[in-house]
Amino acid sequence: MVMMIMMVMEIVGSNGLMIMMIVGNYPKLIKKAPVELVYNDINDPIIPWPAEQFEEGDKVSDAEGTTIGSSHGWVASLMHGVGILRLHDDLNPVASDANPKCITLPPLVTLPQCQTQIITNVSLSSLSPEEEDCVVAIKFMGPQLSYCRPSAQGNSKWFNIRITNPCFFSSRLMFSKRHNMFCIPGSGGQLIASWNLCKDEHTPKIQVLRYVDLPELSEAEREVMDTCFTTEHLVESPLGRTILVKCFRQTVDGTNLKTKAVLVFEVTPKGNAFYTRHLGNVTIFISKSESFSVRASSFPGVSRNQVYILDDTEIVLFSLDDSTISSSTDRVVAPYFFPPQNIEY
């Protein structure tokens, strides 16, 4: 068995996905899965959609689900028009092509003055939604946060929380195994909100961050960062430390975003956010899946003290040692990093 970190690179034919190891000379894998799980633009001529796939008059949003996130290798898709969320392992490289698993959750409930069509991300509290105590949490764009327990055997239902502070409306959710809490960083990185949804606690714990030992930046660097779109990502290290990654991206060519800077902070239980360039044996992976980190020494070829970033139009490697950014503006139809999986050769 070989434990490797993978990402979906491209579509091969009408029902094949090419899976690539992050590093190393391992062979690429061809995984069969519905193309619409990762690519939903039926009008794009780059992807050869089979004419028989949709009945006359159908729209892609009505006929198929849209992939809206991934956690622990499980992919979440939203069936538009009916508001039903499905968890499945179609994109997991080690899942069965012939018999993929699929768990259908109850129809979503939209809170007044909220929406449940645009989702920032999905997070699982366990490795699999089939585990008895697993909680599935969804952060929608806006004030709604919802969660349910898939294993409730017919009694599964959504619990809905209205977030009052607008700084959390566009933020991404993560699950802290150490604290058994779902956490969201506020826009700008000044606050972190945490919920113990495993105990149905709907009132968040708010942590105010105090930044310590900020890096010395030149005037030119500050001017560039001031013009950037900033996103914040919470990651838990293999030792349980909370890490906050701030990504600064700038629009190029009028459309695409390009990473211009990355800042990494270690957050203490008291709310001190220490700027760091030394994560030691830790490597971080950020994509449209739930962010995760690994011990670099456990994965041959993975460089320590690095941040890998995968987005629709960019693949980035950031080195904390010297703050260098290596990037390529490739089009990625399925921008998902998959956490370590057992691959048998």
Strands, helices and their partners?
Blueprint: E1 2-12, E2 16-21, E3 29-32, H1 60-63, E4 65-71, E5 74-79, E6 84-88, E7 102-107, E8 119-124, E9 136-140, E10 144-148, E11 159-162, E12 174-176, E13 181-185, E14 191-195, E15 205-208, E16 210-212, H2 219-226, E17 229-236, E18 242-252, E19 256-267, E20 272-275, E21 282-286, E22 292-295, E23 306-311, E24 314-319, E25 324-328, E26 337-343
Parallel strand pairs: 16-20, 21-23
Antiparallel strand pairs: 1-2, 1-26, 2-3, 4-5, 5-6, 6-7, 8-9, 9-10, 10-11, 12-13, 13-14, 14-15, 17-18, 18-19, 19-20, 21-22, 23-24, 24-25
Account of the protein in words:
This is KIB1-4 beta-propeller domain-containing protein. It holds the Pfam family Beta-prop_KIB1-4. This protein has about 350 residues and is mainly β. The protein has one domain: Neuraminidase, CATH 2.120.10. About 5% of the residues lie in helices and about 45% in strands. The chain is built from two helices and 26 strands. The model is unreliable at about 40-65 (pLDDT under 50).
